[in-house]
Amino acid sequence: MSDPTVTMASERTPEPGPTAGAGPGRPSRRSVSPARQMLLDLVTRPRFAVPGTLVLLLAVIAVFPGPIAGFFGNGDPLACDLNRSGLPAGEGHPFGFDIQGCDLYAQVIYGARPSITIAVIVTVTSTLVAMALGLVAGYYGGVIDTILGRGIDLFYGFPFMLAAIVILTALGSHGIWAVSGTMAAFCWPTMTRVMRASVLATRKLDYVKAARALGASDLRIMVRHILPNAFAPVLVLASLTVGGIIAGEASLTYLGVGLRAPSISWGVQLNTAQSYFNSNPNLLIYPSLFLCVTVLSFVLVGDAVRDILDPKSR
Amino acid sequence: MTRYILLRVLLALSVALGATFLIFLVVFALPGDPIQALTGGQHVMSASVEAALRERYHLDDSLPLQYLKYMGGLLQGDLGEDFTGRPVSAIIAESWPTTAKLGLTAFALEIVVGIPLGLWAGLRKGRPVDYAVLGGTILAFAVPIFVIGYTAQILFGINLGWFPVAGTEEGWPTSYILPAVVLGILGLATTARLMRTSLVETLSADFIRTAIAKGMPRRRVIVNHAMRNSLIPVVTYLAIDLGGLLGGAVIIEGIFNIPGLGFQIFEGIKQQNGPVVVGISTLLVLIFLAANLVVDVIYGVLDPRIRYE
Questions:
Q1: Which residues in chain A touch residue B23, judged by CB atoms under 8 angstroms apart?
Q2: pTM, whole model, 2 decimals?
Q3: Could you give the ipTM of this predicted complex?
């Protein structure tokens, strides 16, 4: 597949800025390190900046839901009053009330936390596992590689949704960790394959041979020489996966096998709302809207990251 | 080539064995006692009846033994019967046509709409059409399928009244169009994107430049040279996707209340009906693996380099 493109990406001509004084000689840009140049490229392109800001905002909401939920004066998602069940929007309650009579705005804001927590846990663990396993399998090859390859094939044999439903039912637990663990179990195989392919491409490069000739240990070669030049494709895949994980979690929860009622999450809200969508469409609209915007932001950020790290794929 | 195919078949068989065992393991671990569940956990069953039932479903055997007995039955085409005494094969035979109709309709949509969309965008790279298609596909990736599902239900089923909201009473195609569109939308987006990217890549290849330089008409360059070569990854994706589509769609069949394989499996899980879950899952995994095997073989035919890997 694509080889690590660190140098390629840094050689990209920077897009002309709004000042448009882009003559051939811009020494300040040239002297910036490749990594920083890449980051600069990323942050300044609008296709990243807009969804990036949204993602940042969502992160803030996930970490500090209290103040944001309390913006309209009724920030407690569990301050519910059945007398107000399903009432439309009113003073201090911009989205109205859900069936239990809780403030829908506060509920939706608090719903961001589990989605994003699960997305982070799944992405981080599967990326780390994939990097470690891909590195070892790609570097040593042989028996380790074969065993790992067949194991991955095994995971590929299952349709994801089906397997996740069966496992979550069997686990009987519906917490964040159970959901994250189940999803991570199906995320790492693809990433490991990509990492392995990338390591295979890097392993043959001259500087790796040079390092070996100089007597560097396997561990040092892997960590210092191969890893930094081989992880870009996995990073791209990981950033593209985040959105899918959020959507997947919501789907599992919506089906009733993911998070359950005492937890506040978009999937739970949508699961409850489907019985009332005729009389209270708001219950469906607001959580869906937040969910879609979140997934879309992460997908777009992933797209932009791919454009920068892997320019060939455009 | 024979060696390559043989190797692939062996590989698929070993994965099938491992996967079915995993399914068995997980379903075995499903919480609750299926025999007690038959009477709603009321303990009204006499001990001898209970023992007979356990005997009949091999529930007293160890897990590996249960698995062996099951595989033995499977090789003879016997998928066992569920805990209410219905043969699993009958359940599958009943729900399979529904799933096939739904999946094939979605598949046809992916081909008929997805490929032309991708071609259109690829030929007009960087123009508004291209951006519209790209934007549309990103949107299709971003909106979770169940959200698309109930939005379509509300919009086209309830508000506009064009299609039935759920169920399959009105038969094909009326009852199947809406769920098939929703089911196919993700594959459609992927197909369109793949087609576009692949076409753009092929169009910048040397042999295209040569063809143009020789003075070949543009239409022939595009149809005979560019399109043919750029279809390879698209066909690969479509073959894999067909395996997934025929495997039933748990979410879509649930939302639209369509009694296909996905629906049955979800009901089976909820009712702790182990044999149904194992039976259908096994079938699905086998379909999935068969689709992958076909793709592998096609790939070997199309690209001889892969055979010697």
A1: 166
A2: 0.78
A3: 0.75
